[in-house]
Design a protein that fits this description.
This protein is of the alpha/beta class and 216 residues long. The protein contains eight helices and six strands; from the N terminus they run H-E-H-E-H-E-H-E-H-H-E-E-H-H. A six-stranded mixed sheet has the order 3-2-1-4-6-5, sandwiched between helices. Helix 3 links the parallel strand 2 and strand 3.
């Protein structure tokens, strides 16, 4: 499931997994464990759902069970432009942890559905090549690397992985309602499209990634 490039990168320094205890990050937790990659966890509570307290508690229990450190932060954000504010808050927190404790790699659980969602969202705003293909397996930041091991897998594959092993995860019900732009895009466009044309879209992204490497 994890490419050789990603394995080599994650073997080169300390790793921090951006965790939410949803399907994607929980599956990635166990996949990384399976292949022997060492990592710790970081998690943000946005205090907008009652379930978030149970998620934090369960994440701490999981970290303790597997002998990992976990860093948590509680934030209260302005409801206007919440998605943008939440993204900025968590990346600021993750960056602070990486710098303070010397993590060289921040592992993100973005999967193929996220990659295609991002593409469509950028396309809807009028974006250039760099913005359209913003998600890649390895991305250099100033003080650390962003590492995305799951970009070739669909969310439903990750859910099957967890269900087949009877592994516990949470589902954020706000993602099922289409209230935010990203969930609206997912429910109405990217998910139905991938359900029908996944193999072709995946092949297109492979070609586009090869072209981007040449242009860079």
């Amino acid at each position: 499931m994890i490419s050789q490039n990603v394995r080599e990168k994650l073997s080169s320094g300390a790793n921090l997994l951006a965790f939410s205890h949803g399907i994607d990050s929980t599956a990635l937790f166990y996949i990384l464990e399976e292949v022997g990659i060492k990592f710790d966890l970081a998690m943000v509570d946005y205090n907008v759902r009652e379930q978030s307290k149970s998620e934090i508690k369960s994440a701490k229990e999981l970290a303790d069970k597997f002998g990992k450190r976990i860093y948590t932060k509680s934030v209260f954000l302005d409801k206007s432009n919440f998605e943008k504010n939440a993204r900025e808050a968590r990346y600021e927190f993750f960056g602070e942890i990486c710098q303070k404790f010397g993590y060289k790699n921040l592992i993100l659980a973005h999967q193929f559905d996220d990659k295609f969602e991002w593409f469509l969202m950028q396309l809807s705003k009028g974006a250039g090549l760099k913005e359209l293909f913003g998600m890649s397996e390895l991305e250099k930041r100033k003080h650390f690397w962003l590492v995305r091991p799951l970009l070739n897998l669909r969310k439903k594959e990750l859910q099957s992985y967890l269900d087949e092993r009877n592994l516990h995860y949470f589902i954020d019900d706000t993602n099922l309602k289409g209230e935010f732009k990203r969930s609206f895009m997912r429910l109405n466009f990217s998910e139905p499209f991938l359900d029908r044309y996944f193999s072709g879209v995946r092949k297109s992204f492979e070609f586009l990634e090869a072209d981007r490497q040449i242009l860079m």
